[in-house]
Design brief:
This protein has 79 residues and is an alpha+beta fold. The chain has a domain at 1-46: Lrp/AsnC effector binding domain/regulation of amino acid metabolism (RAM) domain (Alpha-Beta Plaits). Helix content is 27%, strand content 38%. It has helices at residues 19-27, 53-64; strands at residues 6-14, 32-37, 44-50, 69-76. The longest helix is centred in the last third of the chain and has 12 residues, at 53-64. The radius of gyration is 12 Å and the shape is globular. The two termini are 16 Å apart.
């Protein structure tokens, strides 16, 4: 039986001109499986696949503390 993982999407608002820098740093974080620069209300979407809520929290906190990140919204996917 495979262990179920927590999948979350984090929407980020980024300071002007910092999008590519944040994307590069975010893609190197533990449990991050995808990072996309997007157009619209948010600037970046990060997909996280974490084994526990504690691991998810650490990854989200790392994103929030990055230079250039102004705001985040975390969406946890249901199965």
């Amino acid at each position: 039986m495979s262990e179920e993982r927590i999948i979350a999407y984090v929407l980020l608002n980024i300071a002007l001109g910092k999008e590519h820098e944040v994307k590069e740093k975010a893609s190197k974080l533990d449990h991050v499986t995808e990072v996309k620069i997007v157009y619209g209300e948010f600037d970046i979407v990060v997909r996280i696949e974490a084994p526990t809520f504690k691991a998810l929290d650490r990854t989200v906190c790392s994103l929030r503390s990055m230079d250039g990140v102004l705001k985040t919204i975390t969406l946890i996917a249901s199965s």
